[in-house]
Amino acid sequence: MDATNFAQPPQAITSYPTDVRALAYSPDGSLLALMDESPRGVDGYGTLQLVDIAKQTARLSWRLMLSPLDLAFSPNGKYLAYATALPDYPIQMPLTNVCVISILDMSQNPPRGVYDFDCPYQYGSSGQSAFRLVFSPDSNWLAAGRQPHDIQLINLNTGRVTTTSLVFEDAHGLELGSLAFSPDSKQLVINPSYYPAASAHLIWLESMEQSTTWYDQETVTRHPIEGNLFYSDDQQKVYEVVTQNYVSTLKIWDIKRGQQLASAVLPGLYGIVDQNLRNHTLILDRLDSSGESTDPSTPPDFLVVDDQTGHIVFSFNGMGATLSPDGKRLIVTKYSTVVIEVIDASTGHKEALPPFWTGRVVNFKFLLNDTLLSVNTASGVHFWDLRQNVALNFNVSFSRAVVSPDGKWLAGQRYRSPSPDIELYDFQTHKLVHTVSLPTSPLHLAFSSDSQTLIAVFHETYPVDTSYVARIDVKSGKLTRFPNLSVALPNNGLTGISEDGRLILLYTQSEVVIWNIETNTMTPLTSARNNPFIDWTFSTDGTLVAAIEPSDSNNGLGYLPTSHHLAVWNTSSGELLRSLRTPIAYIGDEYNQNRSAHISFSPAGDRVYALSSAWLQPAAWDIATGNQVSIYPLIAHSSVASPMQAVLAVAAQDHVYLLSATTPTICWDWPYGMKDVSFSHNGQWLVGRSEDSETLTLFAVDDARIPTPQPPPLTPIASR
Question: What is the pLDDT of residue 127?
Fold first, then answer.
């Protein structure tokens, strides 16, 4: 790593929320746009994100005030259009919902909104009809809609909007299958979804006339449209999918001479959603499915078809799919595992996932001598290999997962699985070794120090409130309950957990203890008050624990300084090493509970750092004397000391700072705000979480440069 090369931005590990509704590549393949649906209770209905493919970073993110429907880039790359609407809850049952089409000018930096249109948004017969946004090849027109008889045509040169009024044999409940322009941008093809009596309609854009026939270019002979119609991008072929008795036939025509070149029977009801002529690839979507297939007896959700012969190359399941601009990869959104899947478009082989985390970042920690970063998100646990700068691709998603100290085993529970069972995997090969049946979901999991045993903490409410420890033999998968020393945890549960997961700070009915779940022994903390700490932390090696105890009296104003006890204990003996009354800043969270930012230890264990006073300023205290030895003139969200070097990292509102841990000297700053920061155990990595919890930014720490102000001691990780 070159510490003087700061032209490259740091590697950002970008997270996508759990429910991706639409995605689209920019024409040059440099950007991927995504829209997701936010869970209930979150401000807004989702986000629109722009991801830089080469740098694997999120370029921009917008909060959506309506529910996402669809998005599309114009072929010339100038525009990005996206549609949003009020959530489609059938219980509301109005015939028309609020819908807005927004168009961004991507030639501006940052992109600038140029148009916003209201559009009709009627419910389909099943309430599942997809909304479509399609640009014409010349980028002059945008077609949008959900129902085939109410398609809006937007002229991007004039801003004029025209709504079609197609007449079908039976328009009631008819849903839209697809929208497509002819390659010369003179016609719009409106395809209904599968329907025995309906066929495609053509709209001639110059006159807005409708037609139910197409004609070849040489003889100008009209051909009646029997099914759904799709033009090839080179205007050499027209593909027709005819549906009869719930069976589809793909017909491939020569558009100039009107000759049929090939035909093929499809295993279900399908329509063409994408094509790439360089690879002779057509992507067909199953029309009679509103989601991802889970029944193996049903036809697949998507087919990849040779555009010359109509032969099926391979098939796959998913919620949505799009081809990369070069036609080599398929990006597939999945529902059951809530991931984005990458498939080689020529072979159907799954590729390794790009380093995109799926879900809001909840917490993260370094593992295996800082070679691995574990990221716990709203959609499960993910792992990042710091040596090779790649995400590890397991075939399943985990709601929780722990890795053994020797790096050989992973124990986890499947994401969104109703079963409490634990699965044991070989961490190197990702193969499932054991499935361990459990009576209930464990509160906590950790491996023993020798990696031979998985330790689980359980909680039972009948006949009494009791927590206990059970051991699972890694080789056999056998579960054995620990004898003796069960501990009652009324209304408390687990509190603080050490980095290795084997020490737990908790409150019993009468005292505060350190519970070693590996040995199932409890060590009371001398002179600790039996009420919740405002904040706490273990030292990296687990030998010390520091906590902020509430004061005897509270002035009721969380923004004013209050004298609290900052105490440090030895975790093995429970001995109180230092207790000092000092102004410690705390603020109320959304539940009106008091909280403080990070507490951390110096590498030698002789200092403890926290946020002091009402102004949230990082400060240091000498543990031996109890004196405050330094305070840093910064307003911070959090601060953390390096476990190896005399430096302090601070997350402020608009910067990340690296400070000397002995003097209030700023050594380096990065001009982006972070919610919190954390060092790896060896101090060689610094990771920060963005204020919206959607991004982790990773820095490599150059030991030789600390604490020299220039050049900066943090080396941004170069993009791949």
Answer: 41
Angstrom distances, CA of residue 97 to CA of 36, 192, 393: 20, 21, 40
List the one residue out of 79, 41, 50, 83 whose CA is nearest residue 66. Answer: 83
Longest dimension (CA), the chain: 98
Q: Which residues of 479-490 are buried (b: 16+ CB within 10 A; e: fewer)?
A: beebeeebbebe
For residues 233 and 90, the model is more confident at 233
Residue 60 CA to residue 51 CA, distance in Å, equals: 7
Pairing, β 563-570 against β 576-583:
antiparallel
Give the range among 202-206, 385-389, 673-677 with minimum mean pLDDT.
Answer: 385-389
* The overall pTM is greater than 0.85: no
273 DSSP 8-state letter = E
pLDDT for the residue 340: 55
Better-predicted residue by pLDDT, 528 or 460: 528
Look at 1 and 236; give whichever has higher pLDDT.
Answer: 236
**Whole-angstrom distance, CA of residue 378 vs CA of residue 713:** 33
Contacts of 259 (CB under 8 A, 6+ apart): 253
In the numeric block, the tokens 């030789």 are attached to 704
Nearest to 621 by CA among 602, 644, 594: 602
Report how far residue 226's alpha carbon sits from residue 231's, in angstroms, rounded to the nearest whole number. 15
Look at residue 572 in the predicted model and tell me its pLDDT. Answer: 94
Euclidean distance between CA atoms 706 and 679, whole angstroms: 15
Q: Tell me what pLDDT residue 487 has.
A: 62
| Residue ranges with strand state E in 290-443 | 302-306, 312-316, 320-323, 329-333, 340-344, 356-358, 361-367, 372-377, 380-385, 390-391, 398-403, 409-414, 422-426, 432-436
CB atoms within 10 A of CB 652: 19
- Look at strands 372-377 and 361-367 and give their pairing: antiparallel
> Average of pLDDT values for 568-572?
94
> What tokens were used for 514?
């350190």
Q: How does residue 717 score in pLDDT terms, banded at 50, 70 and 90?
A: very low
| Structure token digits, residue 286 | 């199953």
SS3 for 72-99, per residue?
EECCCCCEEEEEEECCCCCCCCCCECCE
The backbone torsions φ and ψ at residue 180, rounded to the nearest 5 degrees and listed phi first, read -155, 140
Most confident range, picked from 171-180, 228-237, 488-497: 228-237
Count CB-CB contacts under 10 A for residue 96.
11
Please state, as a whole number, how many other Cβ atoms lie within 10 Å of the Cβ of residue 425. Answer: 22
Tokens of 278: 């360089």
Closest CA to 569 of 578, 561, 581: 578
Three-class DSSP category at 35: strand
Helix H or strand E segment including 375:
strand 372-377
Whole-number Cα distances in Å, 553 to 165, 548, 557, 594 = 72, 14, 11, 14
Half-sphere CA count of 68, side-chain side, radius 13 A: 27
Nearest to 88 by CA among 100, 96, 80: 96
Q: Taking the alpha carbons of 633, 634, 639, 641 in that order, is the dihedral positive or negative?
A: negative
- Spatial distance between the Cα atoms of 229 and 241, rounded to a whole number of angstroms: 7
